[in-house]
Amino acid sequence: MSVARIEKERLELAGRDDIDFINAFFILFRTAQYTEVNNATYQTASSKFYVNFRRLVDEHGRLSVKVIEGHVLIRDRLVKLDSEGMVRARNLIDIWRRLGIGGVVFDDSLDNRQIDKFVYLILNSEKASRTSDDVARRLADMEIQGITLLGVEEKKSEPLLDEQKRTMMRRAARVTFFRAISVVEDAMTCVANEKSVNINKARYVVHSLIDQISQDESSLIELTNIRDFDEYTYAHSANVCVYSLTIGLKIGLDRRQLSDLGFAALFHDIGKIRLPEDLIRKPDIYDENDWVQMQKHPHLGAKTILRNMKFDMKTARAARVAFEHHINMDFTGYPQLQDKKQVNLFSRIVSITDTFDALRSGRVYIKKSVPPDIVLKKMMYQMTVKFDAFLLKLFVNIIGIYPPGTLVLLSTDELAVVSSTNSADLARPMVRIIGNKSGPLPKFIDCDLTLAKNEPRRIVRLIDPERYHIDIKSILLSDR
Predict the structure, then answer these.
(1) Residues 6+ apart with CB under 8 A from 421
(2) Least confident of 26-30, 309-313, 468-472
(3) Each residue of 23-53: pLDDT tens digit?
């Protein structure tokens, strides 16, 4: 059953009980990665999962959980996950993929002890690079007969039209973007639990980001406009990585340099895990004492990378970026240096992308998001003091007046989402028209504002989705 067939047949969407079950399922695996089976946190997650499991299995007898081309299905019903659910799902989907598992069927004979054994079997098998056949044999050895493993459904390669290629590239960008967030969450959870960080997953996801940005940077940049993550630091780190790699590609860094840059950008804020949680989540403007605490995170970040990650040149460069990314070009900022040496290239790149995303978000340093055009104007005004002038101008050209993913009003009274910038005319980007005076469109319309036929259409202004209660996330994740 391919995604095309899923969409063609318009599968029924999973209900609330199904979604609660799936979320509890993902959380259970996530918790097991960092705790032992007798840990109180794991036991809580296990109990919550089992309550959801029994509710459904008592009603239906059997439950299937499948992954088909990145889509999650329960009882052959498509699950629509929120942003946090996508991050959790990405983690388990990647584990299943490495084991060669495409899904699982549970029956009503299972008790919670058998489920716990299954969870830890999957995680230990992934660490030992076993296969799905190995897992199936171990289930039989443990006399767990209520779990059936499903194989991976291979997708057939068929020639794609341009529109289909664009859709597939946007889907691939989503997968990699949420995987990057998951990698940051993994690393910070390991640090919080005083465990070493496995950097191989980070290297893999950075290489995937490089490949996708090389082909289609806009599909990833537009995802940086999703702002509803509970754990802002994780998404912020992924955003900064995407922006930084885009700059790196524009200035001609080779693949090894891009890999090092992306890795450093992904973990530039890891020191924040060492700060009090109530400081990071504080809803009010920071006072002087808060700022003193916050300004410790670059130093803490460098120490954390060197202590919790295997030391090599990649982690050494990442530690330097974590330490330097708040030092300005005129050596103001923090931490203050006695020996004033020029900040390295990667740190200068991350300084720009970190500032841009932080001001856009309104989540930490300031408590109100700022429109991207205003952010860029502020940054350009501070260019000679804070930022590398050449890199900042390059970043402005990449982002444009209207960055991909931003919502705009057209002169034709149509609502549109910017899909990609046009370097020849930053005021006339590519857009996806999503609605007009009559309401939302059933199918979005791609529109190149530089074409003569679209001359009557021009962007009037940016629209704040929250102010008008528009769900920008669902639009950015839609294939309409």
Answers:
(1) 218, 397, 398, 399, 400, 402, 403, 404, 429, 430
(2) 468-472
(3) 999 999 989 988 899 999 999 999 999 999 9
| Calpha distance 203→205 (Å, rounded) | 6
Q: What is the spatial distance between Cα 244 and Cα 53, in angstroms, rounded to a whole number? A: 43
The pTM for the full model equals 0.80
pLDDT-based confidence at 274, cuts 50/70/90? very high
Angle at the Cα of 138 from the Cα atoms of 137 and 139, rounded to 5 degrees = 90
Q: What is the DSSP letter of 10?
A: T
Structure tokens, 115: 């489920």
Sign of CA dihedral 334, 335, 338, 339: negative
Helix (H) or strand (E) segment spanning residue 103: strand 103-107
Which is it for strands 407-410 and 459-462: parallel, antiparallel or unpaired? antiparallel
3-state SS, 387-404, equals CCHHHHHHHHHHHCCCCC
Return all residues near 55 (Cβ < 8 A) that are at least 6 apart.
17, 21
The residue written with tokens 């289909």 in the block is 164
Extended beta strands in 303-429, E state: 407-410, 415-420
The strand order across the sheet containing 459-462 reads 439-448, 430-436, 415-420, 407-410, 459-462
Report which of 214, 234, 235, 217 is spatially closest to residue 225, judged by C-alpha positions: 235
What is the pLDDT confidence band of residue 10, given thresholds at 50, 70 and 90?
Answer: very low
Q: How many angstroms separate the Cα of 291 from the Cα of each of 147, 207, 299, 333, 468?
A: 52, 35, 14, 12, 33
Return the minimum-mean-pLDDT range out of 28-37, 92-101, 221-230: 221-230
What is the per-residue burial (b if ≥16 Cβ within 10 Å, else e) of 59-92? eeeebbbbbbbbbbbbbeebbebebbbbbbbbbb
Tokens 């063609």: give the residue: 8
